[in-house]
Design a protein that fits this description.
heterodimer; A: mainly alpha; 4 helices; 0% strand; elongated; B: mainly alpha; two-stranded antiparallel ribbon; 8% strand; disulfide bond (chain A); RNA binding (chain A); Ribosomal_mS37_met (chain A); CHCH (chain A); Coiled-coil-helix-coiled-coil-helix domain-containing protein 1 (chain A)
Chain lengths: 115, 209
Amino acid sequence: MSGSVVQEKVAKLLSRQNGKPVLRPIKPLALKNEVASRSLKKGEATCVTEMSLVMACWKLNDFNNSVCSKEVSAFYTCVEKAQNKAKGKQGTQGRLLPKEANTLLKRFPNLSSEI
Amino acid sequence: MAASVRHLLKPWTPSLCLVRWSRYNSYYLDPDPSKDARVPDSELSPEQKELQELKTVRRIKAALSSDTSSPFSDPLMSKFINMMMQDGSKILARGIMTQPREEIECSPHSVFQQALENCKPIIGLASVQKGGKSYQVPVPLTDNRRGFLAMKWMITECRDNKHRRTHMYEKLSQELLAAFANEGNVVKRKHDLHRMAEANRAYAHYRWW
């Protein structure tokens, strides 16, 4: 229903009847069968505090890992938690991820020309 | 709309039957050649029971010719042998690996594992581009990456920095013993990496993951 309205508007923009046309497209006005893969929220560096603790311990004890084992194990637990969080966050509900949208569009594309 | 459309992205199920491949879909499960795999049902937790049922139903990958059911097989050792192998001569690589076992008297298996543990770096460096300039940023490493780096350093050190006339197994045994005692060139290389990471700790916030 709204598709025909859009087509009429586009036809009006391209027509030369009312003076110069508003649009002079080089490529055909059709959507690509792909979505831009962005929507990256600006992430932060994870586990920086633990890393700084480990480095401080290293400086005091001349990079001896056996002495700094507590800080190192804390660092490892932090890294594991961050990795699990990053894995779990990927499937955001309510919105298709750009990867999923691209696979679906590849299977069911919008045909712009006759095959 | 997304929820109804997402069901089209169901996980892959097989239509054709592959006989033997080197790259499998994630539908295929890994083979488990160990003899202790068959534990009676009473001792299994519900998750493990599910796993056993899955193994009876799902397709399983073809086992490699290096998979054994013997208790002496060590996945770490196999990985190290594969990394040391050149031009596919597994027999030669295995021979080189078994000889330091004769040289190292007490418990060569645990010595090998402890030596590699001592060589594993904790923090690595990653190159991050910011403002047209690339910085070396300290970064936490995954376990796989750490093990790989330890083994790679060991092998390159044995190949390059030793006297030309010594055999590989001699060089390996010397380096493994030194790493076990937290000395030697490989541990020094690990410490150098840690020192560089410590020097660049100001750039740690350039990471976004």
